[in-house]
Every structure is written in C-alpha cells, then in structure tokens.
C-alpha cells in the first residue's frame, strides 16, 4: 500500500481551484490570449520580449569578467548559419504539418456536408417515389443517418484536437409518458457497442438538458470532471457512465437548436468526448457550436420532410419515436 501523499493532494486541490469541473462558454475568439504562448503573442508579451532581447544584447552585467572568451569569426559564422538553418528547417516542418492538417480538416468538413446531402436525398427519394411506402421516417433510417453524421464529426475533431480518442454521440428529444426526455440515437464506433443495451434517457429537467436550458440553450459546456460536476448538481451519472468510466473522461457538450414543430427549440444534444483529460479548451468552443448547428439543421430538415403525420407536444418539440 502506498503512503498518503500530501503534496499530491495539494497539487490536485490547486488544479481544482483553478479549473472548475464544468465551464460554460459562448465565444471562443479570445482563446489565442490564453496560456504561456498567449502571453507572448499579446502586445504586452511582444514588448516585454523586445525589451529583454535589447537589454541582454546591449548590456553586460557588472559581474561579467573583462576577459571574455574570444571566438574566431569563422566559427561565429558557422554557428550562426547552423542555428539559422536548423530553425528554418523546423519552421518548414511545422508549416508542412499545419498545411496537411488544415487540408484534412477542410476535407472532412466537405465530407460532412456531402454525406448529409446524399443521405437526405436517399431518404426523400424513399418517401416520395416509392408509392408512399413510408408514412413517416423509419427509426432505423434516422439512426443510420445520425451515425453517419457522428462518424464524420469524429474524424473532424480528431484532426482538430490531435487526439485519437475522440468519440461523438447524439441525443434527440422524444416523448416518454408525456414527458420530454433526451435519448441517445447514435454514437461512434469507438464507444462500447453494449452501451445501447443499458442506455438511459435523461429528463429535460435534470443533468445536462437542464443546465443547457438554464443558459437558453446557448453556448458550449466543457466537462473537466464529471464526479465533481455531479456533486454540484451539474451532471447526472448514468448506468453507462458507471459501467464504462474510462471511455469518457472529458467532454464538450452543445445544444442542437433547430425547428421543433412551431418554433426553434433544443431538438437534441451533441456530445464530443475524449479519454484524455486535457484535450478540450476554449479554443474548440466555436468548432463544437458549429458542428451542433450543422447537425441540428440536417436532422430537423430530414425529420420535417420525413413525417407525413406530425405529432407535436405542448412545448412544440416533435415526437420522433
């Protein structure tokens, strides 16, 4: 048995004090100012760097000896060219990686839109040109459609975060015993397939749905610590959370707002999850919000087109199962 580490406890408590278990963020445009690098790219950091370079290059501290080591001019030139070449090479390698990553991200964004268009076309064709075979959108068609969206979003966020352990899930608003709940309709293949057997719905008045609605279904939630979040009443732990604790360590969660029958409403919730604790930050907020809006519009359009007989509850959220 290991001895109790007080130093570790102090460190953990300090981190918890500095970083809350849950953050709600609506705008990620100021993310470039954060962190160690952020200081040096701000005006204050640039000025500080220039002053430091000037002082160290032009001034000699009093404790320096007068007899400095003399370096031959030819060696100075060689050293300078070596450092310059090495730095330039690293810069080109960095530029190469950034360019490849940027092109891949653009590719998967196009692939997402391409997939949504093709799947919508297929479903509309089935609904309109097959002798009215379907009176409404079949559940399996909707699930396949959502899984395709999830898989494309997964690849996009893997590239965006440089984390291979990203997964995506979508919950949609449904009616259960005349109450609105959010049910998981799709998840990516990285999550255990047995989750479907023990999946639970979440009421509109608890956990994540309640928190999002308290913020008028705007912004993005970043969960750094689910256990602490539950203690604060900001999260509801499900059976799958207890059964597969290592699959989802952190998450970014966004409302999916779109046409709900008679007005815009939170028709679903998008979950971007990771097994790594330090994957998500404020710089990913706008990307998650963008993904949630794209997915919400795609789902809303197909549901509205797919239903021949509409059922709308008292809160104008369409019944989809």
3D structure, described in words:
- By secondary structure, the protein is an alpha+beta fold.
- The protein has a domain of 209 residues: GAF domain (Beta-Lactamase, 2-Layer Sandwich), CATH 3.30.450.40.
- 50% of the residues lie in helices and 16% in strands.
- The chain has 10 helices and 7 strands.
- It has a 7-stranded antiparallel sheet, sandwiched between helices.
- The longest helix is centred in the N-terminal third of the chain and has 56 residues.
- The chain is elongated.
- The N terminus and C terminus are likely disordered.
Quick structural overview:
The chain crosses the membrane at residues 46-64, 76-95. The chain is α+β, with helices and mostly antiparallel strands and 321 residues long.
């Amino acid at each position: 048995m290991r001895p109790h580490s007080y130093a570790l406890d102090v460190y953990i408590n300090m981190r918890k004090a500095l970083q809350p278990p849950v953050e709600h963020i609506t705008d990620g445009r100021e993310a470039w100012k954060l962190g160690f690098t952020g200081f040096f790219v701000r005006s204050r950091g640039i000025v500080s760097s220039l002053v430091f370079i000037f002082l160290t290059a032009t001034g000699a501290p009093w404790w320096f000896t007068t007899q400095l080591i003399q370096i031959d001019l030819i060696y100075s030139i060689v050293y300078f060219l070596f450092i310059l070449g090495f730095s330039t090479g690293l810069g080109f390698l960095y530029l190469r990686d950034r360019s490849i990553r940027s092109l891949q991200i653009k590719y998967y964004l196009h692939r997402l839109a391409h997939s949504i268009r093709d799947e919508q076309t297929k479903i509309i064709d089935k609904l309109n040109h097959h002798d009215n075979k379907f009176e409404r959108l079949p559940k399996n068609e909707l699930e396949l459609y959502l899984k395709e969206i999830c898989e494309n979003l997964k690849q996009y966020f893997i590239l965006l975060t440089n984390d291979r352990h990203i997964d995506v899930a979508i919950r949609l608003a449904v009616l259960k015993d005349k109450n609105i709940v959010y049910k998981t309709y799709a998840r990516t293949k990285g999550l255990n397939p047995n989750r479907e057997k023990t999946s639970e719905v979440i009421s509109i008045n608890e956990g994540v749905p309640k928190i999002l609605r308290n913020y008028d279904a705007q912004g993005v939630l970043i969960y750094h610590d689910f256990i602490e979040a539950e203690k604060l009443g900001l999260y509801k732990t499900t059976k799958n959370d207890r059964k597969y604790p290592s699959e989802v360590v952190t998450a970014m969660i966004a409302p999916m707002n779109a046409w709900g029958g008679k007005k815009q409403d939170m028709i679903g919730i998008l979950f971007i999850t990771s097994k790594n604790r330090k994957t998500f930050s404020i710089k990913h907020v706008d990307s998650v919000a963008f993904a949630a809006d794209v997915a919400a519009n795609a789902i809303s359009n197909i549901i509205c087109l797919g239903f021949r007989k509409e059922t709308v509850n008292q809160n104008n959220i369409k019944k989809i199962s």
